[in-house]
Write a structure and sequence with these properties.
Elements: H1 2-20, H2 27-47, H3 56-77, H4 85-136, H5 140-157, E1 165-167, E2 202-204, H6 210-222, H7 226-233, H8 244-260, H9 266-281, H10 288-301, H11 307-325, H12 331-347, H13 358-369, H14 377-392, H15 395-415, H16 422-440, H17 444-458, H18 468-483, H19 487-507, H20 512-526, H21 531-546, H22 557-570, H23 576-593, H24 600-613, H25 621-630, H26 635-648, H27 651-663, H28 668-683, H29 689-704, H30 725-737
Antiparallel strand pairs: 1-2
Helix pairs in contact: 1-2, 4-5, 5-8, 6-7, 6-8, 7-8, 8-9, 9-10, 10-11, 11-12, 12-13, 12-14, 13-14, 14-15, 15-16, 16-17, 16-18, 17-18, 18-19, 18-20, 19-20, 20-21, 20-22, 21-22, 22-23, 22-24, 23-24, 24-25, 24-26, 25-26, 26-27, 26-28, 26-30, 27-28, 27-29, 28-29, 28-30
Length: 738
Amino acid sequence: MYANTETRADDMGTATAEARGHEAPTAQDVAGLADTQYESSLRIEDAQPEARPPTRDGHAFSVASTGVFAWLSPLAMGTLRIPHPAWLIVGVLLLLGLIALCILLARRFSRRGDEAVVEAEAGAEADEHKASESRSAPSDEHAGVRVSDAALTESLLLAPARDVTVNVPTSWQPSLSPVVRPSWGTTPSRQTTAASPQPESKLFLDEDNPDATVRMARTALSTGMPARAAELLTPLLKRTDVSNKTLMAAGGILQDIAIRSDEHGECYGLAADAFARVLELEPQRQALQRRIGQCRLEQARRLSAGPQRSRLFSEAAERLGLAAEAGGADIRLLADLGTAQAQCVALSNDASGPTAYINAVVPLRAAMEAGAEEDSDAAWQLQDILRQQAQSEQGDQGASRHAEASAIIRRALSEGTQAARRPLWQATAIDAAIESMRMKNPNAAARRTRLREIRARFAPIMKGDVAPVLVSAWVELLCTEADGLVGSVAIEKYQEAEARLSDAMRSNHEDLSLAVSASRVARRKAARQAPLARLATLRNAQQRLLKPYANRVASSEALQFERVANTIEQAPLLRMQASREMYAQALEWAEPLAHSPRHEAKAMQYCLDATLALDAVGEHDLMADRLLGRARADAGAMLVVARYFLERGNLAKAAESCEAAWRSGAPKSVLVPLWQNVVDAAASNPVSAAWLDGSCKHLVQARNAEGHVIGVGARRPGRIASGDWGRDARSASVHRAG
């Protein structure tokens, strides 16, 4: 019954609405609707279960329901007029416009807040960078240059930023994020970050704004991302619309990247390029010559041998020289200038010998006179060059240069203030003492006495935990003692050296200098063995000591040199084809080292030795001339040069090399047959008469003199048959190289 009544009421209401359209309901309709609702409520009350006390949620729902029905009741009663649909559309559009305006205003204020944070961080970073530069400046004059550049960078960093935000992810990301420029209509998420370093961040910047790029690079560097900073600035240097002010700031950041991280040495070159562009546009800024020269010097130091390295050292020497001539040369500038000029000499084909280093010595002496510390870089470079010159000269001149170098070393040890570099100076003192003993060319008894004195003098500093560089120098002293001994006594010395190295390598297993020293000991010990045992010892050293560091060969010239020495000593112990391959490999590895100041003499000696073995004489005439001019005090090197010039038919230089080898104490059993071959070949040539008489006179003196041996035991001349002198000369040169 109730259902039929309700259905009818609904049908009646529907029909009435359809008949009247949108007209308001009459009083009768409203009354009928009220009766119907009343009846429905009575039915609902009858169907309700037993009443329960209302809960809190139920009460809230009832209140909300009452409010909704109260709002809808006017509509139901017909007292609320519904607006026309067009007005509804207009209202909705106005509401959407108001919402969009609020969003735009919120974004604008958010951008201003982010820019203020970035500017504050950039200012703090500039102040910190300025303070660090002032602390690390080596001198007052140099500090002035750095501070002015830092101020320039700071002024650029504090300029108003445009479209620059920083989005920092919360988790670590292993790779650097690329530069992202938001497309039109999109807005990147923004999040301000604290000044604490973050592992990774994404930088959003305006690529058309160089100033913004510089600011972001500075932020990346300060947050521990040097690679990202370099990535941002590299494209900037290729653009032509960048101001000089921006280029200076970019160059300063790139130089800081290279100083802070050895993995980014290429940034020295990029910084030099930036400074060079500024100097080209503003020639009056000659102070930039110094910064360009220093960057080129550091860039060249990190390159392997080659034409580019030579060119960079030459440019560094030229620019540093111009900076010194312009005035205001301080200790650091003079030291850098001397270093660059010494490297230029080593990389050149100048065969003038010791005089080639004069230009390098002058600025280093000036640095010491200007007040450089006794253990400064200038002092180190000066003593190193003087010792190289002493090795190239004979007689009083060489002894005088070596004495000056020894005096510098003594002052560094007695008056030096850099405790971290003291082990290096102590090791240098041991090396210099050994060199001084060799230059005096004593007989066997005097040699042993002098070595015992050196050992007693330096024994106290070898107690306790000793630096690896000092261990290497001490091992060299032990091996030098063993070289003058024979039999089991010599073997005991080599074993003592190996034991000392083993102890040091247990606590410094990653130190390259110890591995190089161990390989050197193995080579010298192998020289005392029979051919098969010698080959086994050399191969064992190659596998155990050199190959584990193969991935670090490019960064260590000492390791490169030891690899060459081991290879060229194995070569004569192999069969024909394998021997030629070994010599070819050694020649390939040795040629780049021929321009290394530290190893040039021995590297050139190995190159000539391999050239003779490969019958490729004629390709290294310039190298032979250089070696004759720069290593007259090295008997082994002079023997190889004499052989080379004899094969080339240059008998005058061959005789000159033999005389130099004689004055340097070459083994009589090796020198005399070689020299005799040179004299015999020249006797049939009338042109040789000018020098032949003097050479013959000295040959007779060498033949009548007491047999003198360096590095090997004495041999009877009768053991050397014609045609065998080359092998013995090569063996002697190997002993001297050890």
